[in-house]
Amino acid sequence: MSESSRTAVVTGIGVVAPTGIGNDAHWQSVLAGKTGIGRISRFDPSSYPVRLAGEVPGFEEHDAVPYRLIPQTDRWTHFALGAADAALADAGVDPTRLPEYEMAVVTASSSGGTEFGQHEMERLYLNDPSWVSAYQSVAWFYAATTGQISIRHGMRGPCGVLCTEQAGGLDVLGDARRLIRAGSQLVVSGGTDASLCPYGLTAQLSTGHLSNSDDASRGYLPFDAEASGYLPGEGGAILTVQDAATADPDRSYGSIIGYAAGFDPPPGSARPPALGRTIEHALADAGKQPSEVDVVFADGSAVAEQDLAEAQAISAVFGPGGVPVTVPKALTGRLYGGGAALDVATALMSLRDGVVPHTVGTCRLAPGCDIDLVLDQPRYRPLRTAVVVARGHGGFTSALVLERP
Amino acid sequence: MSTFTLDDLRALMRDVMWLDEPAELDGDMSDTAFPELGYDSLAVLELAVHLQRVHGVTISENAVMESTTPRELVALVNAHFTEAGV
Fold this sequence. Notes:
The structure holds two protein chains of two kinds.
Chain A: E1 8-17, E2 20-21, H1 23-32, E3 37-39, E4 52-54, H2 61-64, H3 75-91, E5 103-108, H4 114-126, H5 136-139, H6 144-153, E6 159-162, H7 168-182, E7 186-193, H8 198-205, E8 235-243, E9 254-263, H9 275-286, E10 295-297, H10 304-318, E11 324-326, H11 339-353, E12 355-356, E13 372-373, E14 379-380, E15 385-392, E16 396-403
Helix pairs in contact in A: 3-6, 7-11, 9-10
Chain B: H1 6-16, H2 41-55, H3 61-65, H4 70-84
């Protein structure tokens, strides 16, 4: 690990989520347990096995995206451009006043410009190649969001994208901390996702893990005895990460003090999943004992065997029922490239206000899940240290440790 | 014989790019370089795509991208029509 003494702090957050556009709207929904999940409206889902999702309500790309860029970018990038503007404003940062090569951008992406690509493929199949937009080449690829944020704000430092599905949001924040230690003053990070289109949903169906429920209140039940898979969602969060030494101390939500990433062994292996070790490595990186952690924001896929493995890993590290656990993504669905970033945003608000949000919908823990899952209502208590866990399809496993200022 | 005019190109340019100031394309911009009009290399490539689709003009992307101004691109298209005997 780097010996750098620089501390990476989160100074700005911009949320675009099914729970609301804007940090306050999202947080109020979370505290009220108000779900953002409903019947898919972006297309007619009646012939699909999945009919529920978390959709961002009332997003107007004309407000969030420079007019010229709208036909050149996918909805996932539209979300991120809007959220990035909000995060920079929240941080009180004016990019025109910072050295251009010391501002970096690293975002998470899961499927890239899915809806844009679907429309271009339709134009290809229905017509011929001359109907395919040249902008497809820059709208679909995973780094499009990073590129557009970089260009828009003149951020010429290290830029990149990480594609680890639901774990991406933690991996980019771990990378943001690395970049701060390596000399960047500001890193625009986090991620968004927007794959609620026929092509996007069909691709996700192949995991076999999505819920077929038609009841929005019972469709995604992390750690519940009746868990039957998860629901998809769109949106995410963009966060600004700065060097604590040059950041405005009044703007700090908290420090990124620990990070680790692992990868599960192949199916059928006798080796255990990577999660327990990954959490331990993140805590060691943070210099924290499990007893010093006040809350764990779990991944909570509501896929029975994954829930059990995650609960066992958490219990192994913290002791059975040893730490409050919560899964606010039950209100939004899994946001893939945006999911873990939104979890970090929620965790930072949780630390700020001293309250653990409850996990909505879950009412009876599955056998073997010996965790203190916060249910029914938010739990108010002073909080200092949070661990956020994320698992990406295929075996990606990450953990991030946050500490309030 | 078909001719391709600056107005034809203007119409394509409006389709290809959503300009903040559409009036930038009015008036005499025929010798203004594409980048100054807000058309980067990708936008010029998209013009080539639209030329193919709307006017049936098949010119190599490389040739299109060598046109630095609207006047040059209009001349390129008309030269193509002449060669093709259209």
